[in-house]
Amino acid sequence: VTINKMQQVFIGDVSIEEEDFVKALKSRIAILESSVVVLRADSEVPHGFVVRVMDLIKRSGAERIAIATGG
User: Fold this and answer.
1) Is the pTM above the cut of 0.85?
2) Could you give the CA distance from residue 21 to residue 43 in angstroms, rounded to a whole number?
3) Alpha-carbon distance 70 to 48, whole Å?
4) Are 4 and 50 in contact (CB under 8 A)?
5) How far is CA 28 from CA 11, 42, 45, 52, 64, in A?
6) Using an 8 Å Cβ cutoff, are 56 and 23 in contact?
7) CA distance linking residue 16 with residue 13, whole number of Å
8) Rounded-to-integer distance, Cα 70 and Cα 52, Å
9) What is the pLDDT of residues 16-68, one digit of tens each?
């Protein structure tokens, strides 16, 4: 999952609206048979928005969220 500086959220390369996020990520988790989700967020994204996306990731069935840092 990636959040760009314009607060657009992507699953892979596909931009996902918040209302479709949980269903889309649940499907992706099931297909990949992995309950670990990697989250990358631009440093300019407000903390509160990142936390909201993390909550959506948890509601999607992820057991762990790995935060990608750097670059």
Assistant:
1) yes
2) 21
3) 20
4) no
5) 8, 22, 24, 19, 15
6) no
7) 9
8) 21
9) 999 999 999 999 999 999 889 999 999 999 999 999 999 999 999 999 999 99
What backbone phi and psi angles, to 5 degrees, belong to 65? -120, 120
Query: Residue 38: what are its φ and ψ, rounded to 5°?
Result: -90, 130
| Exposure class string for 31-63: b at 16+ Cβ within 10 A, else e | eeeeeebebebeeebeeeebeebbebbeebebe
Q: Are 24 and 16 in contact (CB under 8 A)?
A: yes
Any bridge partners for residue 10, and if so which?
A: 2, 15
